[in-house]
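From the pipeline queue, job 12 of 40. The input is one protein chain; the requested action is below.

Action: predict structure.
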Amino acid sequence: MDLKIIAVYCICDDVLNILNIKDNQQCLISSAEVMTVGIVSALFYGGNIVAAREFLKIGNYIPNILSHSRLHRRLLAIPQELWNAVFSILRETLHYLFPSTEFAVDSCPVLACQPCRSWRCKLYQGKQYLGYCAAKKLHYYGLKIHLIVSEHGILMEFLITPASCADISGLKCMEIDLPEQSILYGDRAYSSKSFEEELQELEISLIPQRKWASKHQHSGHLRFLLSRRRKVVETVFSQIAKLMPRSFSVRTAKGLQARILWIILACAFNRFVNLTA
């Protein structure tokens, strides 16, 4: 636990120093300490800021920590770019240490509420947040996480979209910043001949599972390879699910997306510590 907390603070502080971001002299705690609270809350307390705050205060990690309300406002005021920069540092470091040319893409649901309660949901409004997860045979109301993962379980890219967003549409919205000659495995939802040709121009091979009615079926050994290579992204999603609480106690959509982001970063930190310790 100590190793993870120290790693979180050091990387957040290094990112702020690299970007030359300075705190106001009147700030009681630094932005790196504020970011540490958010990620630690996802690592050990399912995104519960109150529990993480008490733990960091009692453990003398941040003895002069702010009150809950002020801390929460500081957390939500952290720009998205800073969280993305922390994720990029983790990704680039791990990918440098464990290079790969094989990756897998998939998505998983994040429930804001059950569909029967969607009419009174205050976080989101609109049919675009009503989705269906075929793997779990689940209708839900909320968001969807799209992930690209390397064969070593390293998170390469992520995207948070409304639940109705198709998997292939989410992939098209991602940067897909992968090395040349890379192979990207996916399930049947990513079957798109035109998009496969677009990625071929970037020297990236998209190999999705073919639908039963498709005339362009893969060979037997490639279907077996697909089933094996796609398991890594399912393992990462199970690790993310373990970090998620049963329900999110949030009042705004920004608060929910922030907690999802912290959980993704927490999963990346877990992988970072496990592979480098």
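Job complete. The beta strands are 102-113, 130-133, 138-150, 155-162, 182-186, 204-208.
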